[in-house]
Design a protein that fits this description.
By secondary structure, the protein is an all-alpha fold. The protein contains six helices and no strands.
Length: 193
């Protein structure tokens, strides 16, 4: 007679939380771009480099890690905004390289509007997540719609307002990203999100 034994195996996910990397890549790059929109300095290679490396590449890495963890929301958010940063750089450098015509105000308004619409839907998806993420997504949707209005009207005051609103958006993402690092490092909630 053969005796049957059953063992219960518990698999614990020990991989790091990629959300902190994605949020910080998004947040810091957003702050820097919007300091330019707010008139503190001109758009330059510092912002483009950040958009390629931290805003773009780091978020795409975070997206892939979220995919591996089975987090569809994180995968779509970080992948989309990582590719936003890469496309934004291409919009600026392709014309300077003679490879494309520079976008006009209507095409840039369309670009920002579609990103605003996408972000608004992502905000509704974030309602099941932390309040901090909800703030990031709703303020980002407002930012994209302000940028749309700025492009359509040519009103520099709207772009200036968008710059300050974008600084807030970026800082809110930095806050949630750093809170994630601090809370997970301490294995308890020290900073509320």
């Amino acid at each position: 007679m053969v005796e049957k034994t059953e063992n219960k195996v518990i698999i614990k996910d020990l991989t790091a939380n990629p959300a902190a990397l994605g949020l910080l890549g998004f947040g810091i790059t957003t702050v820097l771009l919007n300091l330019s929109n707010a008139g503190y300095f001109h758009l330059n290679s510092m912002i483009l480099a950040m958009a390629l490396a931290y805003g773009g590449t780091a978020q795409i890495m975070a997206s892939w890690m979220e995919y591996k963890k089975g987090n569809t929301f994180g995968m779509v958010a970080f992948g989309s905004y990582g590719l936003f940063w890469l496309s934004f750089v291409l919009l600026l450098i392709l014309p300077k390289m003679g490879l494309a015509t520079a976008p006009d105000a209507v095409s840039m308004a369309s670009y920002f509007f579609m990103w605003g619409l996408f972000t608004l839907v992502m905000f509704f998806a974030s309602l099941k997540l932390s309040r901090g993420l909800q703030v990031v997504f709703i303020s980002l949707a407002v930012l994209f719609f302000l940028l749309t209005a700025g492009e359509l009207t040519g009103n520099s005051t709207i772009t200036l307002i968008a710059g300050y609103e974008g600084i807030f958006t970026g800082l809110s993402a930095v806050y949630v990203g750093l809170a994630t690092v601090i809370n997970e490092t301490n294995k308890k909630d020290i900073i509320s999100v």
